[in-house]
Amino acid sequence: MSNFTITYNKKAEGFPSFFSYIPEFMVGLNNRFYSFDEGNLYVHDSDDVPRGQFYGNESVLFKLSGVFNQSPLENKLFKTIAIEGSEAWDLSMYTDVGNNGGVLGSNLEKKEQSWFGFIRNENLGDDLLLRNAQGVGAVSTVTSLGGGFYTYEFTFAVSSMISIGDVIYQDDGVTLSKAGLVTAVSADRTIVTVELVVFGVAASNGDFVMYIKDKVAESYGLLGHYAVFTIINETTTASELFILRTEIMKSFP
Fold this sequence. Notes:
mainly beta, 7-stranded antiparallel β-sheet, 5-stranded antiparallel β-sheet, about 50% strand
């Protein structure tokens, strides 16, 4: 287990902060904080050294962790992040149902002194039980175009939600298999062109077809009752952080 220096907050009546430096002795004097390392005296909060640097060592990361727990009994999607402060922080997040994700500070957009971005879902694979998976219907005719491309023709107009980049699955009544990616949809929306992925198998006439929206392109977010977040800042100058907010949406299966 790693060693830490912890601080006590009288108002919180607890220990809210953990520091990576391990002093030999600490003392407060005349509103300044001093500590000793290898017999040498150091003053903290000095303007003469970079922020996050202790005892002459390389600067360390600043990390802040917390929990978003609004409406804890509801299953919801954590979609966006907003950081009010002087810097854009990197964000990582996970939920109680095993969803993981985050967003880099470099991908946040600054608007009116706040930083905004959508949370990327990093879970690998497709979950057909999630809301972004929808059925299309039985394909009437499957035609090979060569080069791994096929057209799936339907006797009806497919949903306007199907778009280029969606993942196509099909069920022949025995096996549910992944086919490939949508590359085109005809003007009358009765023909979908599919490019097979590695190990993908084209559908047969009469197979039931479904599609899954891309989680990143759709800003799907993270699913869960609550989300644990950690924000990280590598700056060596003074940085202010005021508020961290997230936009949530109730999940309707």
